[in-house]
Amino acid sequence: MTIKDYDRLIREPWLKKLINEIRTLPAGDKRADALKAQLPWRCPHYTAFGDNHRRQANLLPEAFTFQTTFDVDDASVVEKAITAARELDTKPGRWRGKLLHMEYSARKKLHIDFRLPLGMTVEEAQQAYGEAIGVPYDKSCITPERFIYVTSIDDEIYRSKEWYQPLNDDDREMYVAAFPRTWTYGRWAHACLSSANGRSYKNTERGNHAHAAYDLHRKAVAHLRPQS
Fold it and tell me: Average pLDDT for residues 8-26, to the nearest whole number?
């Protein structure tokens, strides 16, 4: 799915209606969970998986996005986090220019997408970003196969033109070089991620370097690829 496809999707009336239905239900209501399961979704860390199977054993290093999604799950701090994220993006330092996307979640909380700073794992980046904006990071949101439910255009707060765009060759080389030399190319994308229990993906044989796409019809996945 291209960005153009994604933009059509988030403008679909049925999606907006579904989001509104979810928000009318109280927290913890199982009906809301059932409705959320009908939402399309996107993966922040990888744009494709081997054999169309979203799991850690099927990671494709070349599909790593060099970005992550910070989940703000406390409604009382959402507006504070939005303001802090905007300010952080303009201040000198490691976070300047790293903000890629912000949107309200299905439960009217918040997703913040940002580019990983050089040399940082997803977990390190999420922890540091949370400290910078004053919101604890969610340890369940750092796994390679993590997905995010898509919401409507009305919920989009900010989008950078760099969101889900591949790095140019020079920037990619810098990111690869920023990781320890023992992490060889082809494995570095796995190594820069860690699971919630701290297990490293260094020195794995996961991924077969084949290009793959999600089963969009079956899962309605918001699988983002740059347009050719």
Answer: 97
The structure's pTM equals: 0.79
pLDDT at 214: 26
Residue with tokens 């950078």: 160
Tokens of 94: 């490691």
- Flag whether pLDDT at 164 surpasses 90: yes
Distance, CA of 153 to CA of 81 (rounded, Å): 20
- The whole-number pLDDT of residue 149 equals 96
